Amino acid sequence: MLERLFKLSASGSNFRTEVIAGITTYLTMAYIIFVNPSILEATGMDNGAVFVATCLAAAVGCFIMGFVANLPIALAPGMGLNAFFTYGVVLGMGYTWQAALGAVFFSGVIFILLSLFRIREWLINAIPNTLKKAIAAGIGAFLALIALKNAGIVVDHPATLVTIGDMHEFGAYMAVAGFFLIILFERLRLPGAVLLAVLAVTGIALFSGHVSYNGIMSAPPSIAPTFLQLDIAAAFDIAMISVIFAFLFVDLFDTAGTLIAVTEKAGLNGKNGDMPRLGKALLADSSATVAGSLLGTSSTTSYIESGSGVAAGGRTGLTAVVVGILFLLSTFFAPLAGMVPAYATAGAIFYVSVIMLYTLGDIDWHDLTEAAPVAVVLLMMPLTFSIAEGITLGFITYAAAKALGGKAGEVSLTTWIISGALLLKMVFVG
After folding, report:
1. Strand partners, 148
2. Tally of domains within the chain
């Protein structure tokens, strides 16, 4: 049956290899079950319910990717998007978390429509690579600020806006320790380096009396506090349009980049670089986002960590299915998740930010029309504490810089339209 479902032999793989690949991928991305609840609970969402929703959304996404697209790519609520959900939409703009879930739902529905009507390729190709890389780097900088804030390393100041916090606090140096542990574990090539670092810091906090022991395993907490709690009506607010499209753009570009990178590493792409079953893969991703919003979590997306499973030999959807099963089993570890303090996940968040800043190396910094919009996105996302504002200002700057720099012909019609719409929104809506 597995051979018929996943075509293992044709892919040059077998059951044992796919299982090992699935376990490997899970270990590299399982940190999200601790990080996501710690970020979303700042909105007032129930930690236990978000924990279960995170695991279930990841499982749903992995199962769809595995059974429908037959690709070794795992999904879970995305880093950056969860931060935007919390700090941008809810705490920053003042919307309820229910309304934010409504925005996630609509972004997923639009994503599904783009996938079904094959508009996605046109949209992906129409947006300049410079802006795609800028958005990734900007989110990385945004995450870095959040990590430093959560650890108490960066705090507010009435005169300078921000300043360094009290580095003698336990949480501050534990966050720093967590980050350097990840670097060490990565050097040692330990599977699940990020997860191990989070658990190590939590263990130190536990044994030093800074965290109370609540147990390791139990029956999964109730998902009722977040299940079907999204506010569809509130998402129709005109100011939410930019929020919905911010969720959509980030998810779309992140997913497309991840899918291409992972399938290329697996040797699954065609001679001209075409990815197999791209439509089904994008449909899996968008469907998982809709499912996640119904369960009670931020946008679900494809994880670049899937590359670790591919490196271990994963070539089919069975790898993703194994990851999904492991996420389901993770729902029984809620007490452990509840013990993980914010400073234990801060190092993990900062590590993810470092990874996302890699895209800056591909920017032509000698061309001001390319460098200017990247710099604007990179600086404005963390300084405005908003991914949406960073995207808005980035698009406007890109179009203006190209026009004023005598390179208007390099700007696609789609980019002109998006930039114009965002400019009008800024002027007349705010």
Report:
1. none
2. 1
